[in-house]
Amino acid sequence: MTILCYTLTMDDKELEKIQTIDITVTAESLDAHVICLRQNGYSVQKAFYRLTQLSIAFLLGAFVMGTILQ
């Protein structure tokens, strides 16, 4: 029995042995993953919300620096 590890290199024969499956991601399955992540203590935010947070932090920092330098 061969145990594959990330530190080992794989040749063509071993690559052909890899089995893959096709999955369909639905809104319900994505919601289930988000719920599971939140139950395990992770914070899941939308990308636009994160961009808004960073923009506000940047503008607040620029305002404070402008006030200090003036």
Can you offer a commentary on this structure?
The chain has 70 residues and is mainly α. It has a domain at 45-70. Helix content is 59%, strand content 0%. It contains three helices and no strands. It has helices at residues 12-16, 27-39, 47-69. The protein starts with 11 loop residues before the first helix and ends with a helix. The mean pLDDT is 83.
**What is the rounded Rg?**
23 Å
Counted beta strands: 0
Oligomer: single chain
Q: DSSP strand (E) fraction?
A: under 5%
Index terms:
mainly alpha; 3 helices; elongated
What topology emerges from the helices and strands here?
Blueprint: H1 12-16, H2 27-39, H3 47-69
How would you concisely characterize the structure shown here?
The chain is an all-alpha fold and 70 residues long. The chain has a domain at 45-70.
